[in-house]
């Protein structure tokens, strides 16, 4: 089973912190839709397995109209073998949501919505330069529930300078109030080439406080787990049965095809990523040519990715799997690294599975890098 990701690279407004590929220039939307439909056909042989997840991400997929979304869905069904039961997610911003659109999305087979709420605090939304208001967030959730979207995910961002501990707790209370089944909760990061980075450098905006972020992470984790959610990945929480299948498949190494500018694809042997430029993407595809860069993965690359993704997950990594998939040298290297980290007391062990203790989860990326095998050597 495999997944398809479609990157819709348009937004109404540029959020200050965002480093995803998008454009606020929307005159090319229809040309882009025509191009991605062509790309679906050009890439029809990339995956040899049935498709079990389709994910419209971005950017802002909810900017597209029903006809455009329908054309993409039909092209996927024409050129790929799609499983009978699939998870089909659409990322939507609150200001795009209305009952008419929700009904159309359902009709198209979209059965999971991921709403970009980010915060229920007006000051936090203004700080982020979001296009929507708090009122629109509440209305969007209420309408999505009314339309029968039970598989509903909400994105929240914590650690922003204007968000107090109390404000964050109130955001999480709304999750409880609305009985939301899935939450993706991200620490604000200051990425290169973002408006946020420039504003901080010019001292026009307060910088992010790492201590506050760690505290917020603790609040988020404690409060959502008290609501009966599993902290199944470092930034993701779900009630039982509501994990994101699409993202879980990424993290467990299943194959996926990414369509649209900047989208990544993976088939175990290699990882490739499309050009991150809307005009050049449209031009190439219109001329019948894919435009991507490719990296062939070494055994060391695959091991590093396994350690990175598994340490971010609730289940952690499996020493047996490391031995059978990567071989004895990688197994020995893993044991040696575990021993080096013993004094930090970050692991909990369940047979051959090692996962991070709650208090160490915030450090997952740093701990993963202790396991990394650098360079291009095929074995440690
Ligand atoms: S809506 Fe999403 S993709 Fe668009 S600028 Fe904001 S964070 Fe980035």
Q: Ions, cofactors, ligands: which are bound?
A: iron/sulfur cluster
Tell me the fraction of residues in β-strands, as a range: 15-25%
How many helices does DSSP assign? Answer: 14
Helix/strand-derived category reads alpha/beta
The side-by-side strand order for the widest beta sheet comes to 7-8-6-5-4-3-2-1-9
**CA-to-CA gap between the ends?**
31 Å
Shape: globular
Order of helices and strands: EHEHEHEHHEHEHHEEHEEEHEHEHHEEH
- The number of E-state strands comes to 15
Mean pLDDT: 95
Q: Estimate percent helicity.
A: 40-55%
Rg, alpha carbons: 21 Å
Q: For the report, how would you describe the main beta sheet?
A: 9 strands, mixed
Structure description:
The chain is 40% helix and 21% strand. The model is unreliable at 376-380 (pLDDT under 50). It has a nine-stranded mixed β-sheet, sandwiched between helices. A three-stranded antiparallel β-sheet has the order 10-11-12, with no helix packed on it. A three-stranded antiparallel β-sheet has the order 13-15-14. It has 380 residues and is α/β, with parallel strands linked by helices. The chain has helices spanning 29-42, 66-79, 99-107, 122-128, 134-146, 165-177, 195-201, 210-226, 245-251, 278-286, 299-311, 319-326, 328-341, 364-371, and strands spanning 2-8, 51-58, 82-92, 112-118, 152-158, 182-187, 230-233, 236-238, 256-259, 264-266, 270-274, 292-296, 317-318, 347-350, 353-356. The protein is built from 14 helices and 15 strands. The relative contact order is 0.12. The structure holds iron/sulfur cluster. Iron/sulfur cluster (SF4) binds next to loops.
